[in-house]
Amino acid sequence: MSDIVIRTEALVHTYSTGVTALKGVDLEIESNDIISIVGQNGSGKTTLVRHFNGLLRPSSGKVFVEGEDTTGKTVSSMSRKVGYVFQNPNHQIFCTTVYAELEVAPKNYKMNSEDTKKNIDRVIELMNLEKILSTHPLTLDYTTKKIVTIASVLVYKPSVVILDEPTGGLDQAGREMLSKIVALAHDEGQTMIIISHDMDYVAENSRRIIVMSDGQIIKNDVPFRIFSDRESMRKAQIEPPQITQLDMALTADDHPSLNVGAFVEKYQFISKRGG
To answer: What DSSP letter does each residue of 232-264 carry, written as one string?
Structure first.
C-alpha cells in the first residue's frame, strides 16, 4: 500500500470576507503520484493546495504532511516538504541572474555546498538552462521564466511539488518541456500536484484527477472515469478534451480516448477488426 504524503480531515477555510471556500474536505494524496485538481474558478482548488505548505491555515479541520499535523508549523518548514510554483512567474523571481535564482532555496534551507551544486547541475541539464545562467530572469520570455521558477523549486527536491496553472502562457515547446519535467520528477519519487483549467494537458499527464465544485471534492478517480462521468463534468462546469468528447459521441465505450494518439490507435483497431 502506498504511503499517504498529504491528508486533510474535515478541512474548512473561511476567508475574512465571510466566503467559505472549503467545506469539510477529506482527502488523501499518495506519495509519488501525479494528481490534477480541476474545477471552475471559485471551486476551492487553490485554497485547498495553499494549506499544504502553510500559505493558508484551516478555519477548522486538520492538514497532515508526511504524517505530521501541520498545526503550528512554519511556512518555511512546510515549504521544505511542499514546493509551490505560482501561476505568474514574475511573482516568484527575486534575483538578478538565473543561477542566483537557483541558489535561493538551497541557501534558505541550509543545504550543504556539495548537494547544492549537484542539485543545481541536475536541473540545469534537465531544463536546458546552460545558455541563460547569467541572464536576468525578468528579461526572459514568459515560457522560459516559467521553466526557471519550476527549476528553482525542483532544485531543493521537496517531496511534493504544486504547479499552479503551469501551462498558462506556454508555447508548444514549453508544454512538451513541462510534461518531460513532471514525468522525470515523478520518476525520481516526487509527488506532483497540478492545478489546471487545461483539460488536454490534464488528461495526458495525470494519473489521478480530483474534481472540485463549491468548496467540495465531488469526484476523485483515474482520468478516463473522470471524463466519462457526464454528471460530474456538468456539476463542475468543465468539459472533457475535445478528442474525448468526439470518442464518446462515436461510441458508447466507457473507456474513452484521452489524446489524439490513443484515439487514432483505437479506431485503426476498430477498422481492422471490422474489415
So the answer is: HHHHHT----HHHHHHHHH---SS---SHHHHH
The reported pTM is: 0.92
Question: What is the tens place of the pLDDT at every residue in 153-210?
Answer: 999 999 999 999 999 888 888 899 899 999 999 999 999 999 999 999 999 999 999 9
Q: Where are the domains of the chain?
A: 4-240, 241-275
Specify the CATH class of 4-240 in words. alpha beta
d(CA 181, CA 154): 9
Closest by Cα among 43, 36, 21, 40 to 237: 40
Distances (CA, A) of 142 to 90, 132, 171, 172: 9, 14, 9, 13
pLDDT tens, position by position, 74-122: 999 999 999 999 999 999 999 999 999 999 999 999 999 999 999 999 9
Cell numbers 511556512: residue: 75
Contact by Cβ (8 Å): 154, 123: yes
Q: In Å, what is the CA distance from 250 to each residue of 209, 226, 234, 245, 256?
A: 24, 18, 20, 9, 10
Over 80: is that where the pLDDT of 2 sits? no
Residue 13 pLDDT: 98
Q: Which of 234, 225, 268, 270 is nearest to 251 (CA)?
A: 270
Question: How many Cα neighbours within 13 Å face the side chain of 29?
Answer: 33
